[in-house]
Design a protein that fits this description.
coiled coil, mainly alpha, single chain, 7 helices
């Protein structure tokens, strides 16, 4: 007859090959601390250079690995103007692990990203100025056909909105293409 085994015996049998690698555990713990430290430094209300100093005393390769990932992820088109402080923190983060050339390249990329909201705003203003004439012509045509005066605004005119949308999409594509090429080049420097 079969022997009835206790739950403990079954559990011990199933876990007999499990080992604990203290060094691997400590390494993963250190990496998690590095990730948290980078996130904390970048998301704090004010820059805390002490956190950077702590990072520079941690495992160099892990700091490089997670700094690289954070920097590459953070370099994206801003939806609005980004505070200079955020970009300055990225540059400081890079300076503790990467070459002067890489840090300078990140500075150039952040300067490029700062231009995006300004160019976007300028483009919309320029297009709105150009579209005003077209809207006045439409108003005149409607007045001639119906005998009634109306006022058209860009927000109410589908054609105007479509023109602005297409131009903004083109601007986004140009900036994204340039940014992706710059990030590929940066990846080689990091």
């Amino acid at each position: 007859m079969g022997k009835i085994r206790s739950a403990l015996e079954i559990a011990l049998e199933k876990t007999k090959d499990i080992t604990f690698d203290k060094e691997e555990f400590e390494k993963k713990e250190e990496e998690e601390k590095i990730r948290r430290q980078i996130g904390s430094y970048m998301s704090a209300d004010t820059a805390d250079d002490e956190k950077l100093e702590e990072l520079s005393s941690m495992d160099r390769e892990s700091v490089r690995k997670y700094s690289k990932a954070y920097i590459l992820t953070s370099l994206s088109l801003p939806s609005m103007e980004v505070a200079d402080d955020r970009y300055e923190r990225l540059i400081k983060l890079a300076s503790i692990s990467f070459s002067k050339e890489a840090v300078e390249f990140i500075s150039k990329i952040t300067a490029f990203l700062k231009q995006y909201p300004v160019h976007k705003k300028d483009l919309v203003e320029k297009l709105e100025g150009q579209l005003e004439g077209m809207l006045r012509e439409k108003e005149d045509e409607i007045r001639e056909k119906t005998g009634r005066s109306i006022h058209l605004s860009i927000e109410d005119d589908k054609e105007s909105l479509e023109i602005i949308k297409k131009n903004l999409e083109t601007l986004d594509k140009q900036y994204n293409s340039t940014l992706e090429n710059a990030k590929k080049e940066l990846e080689g420097l990091l």
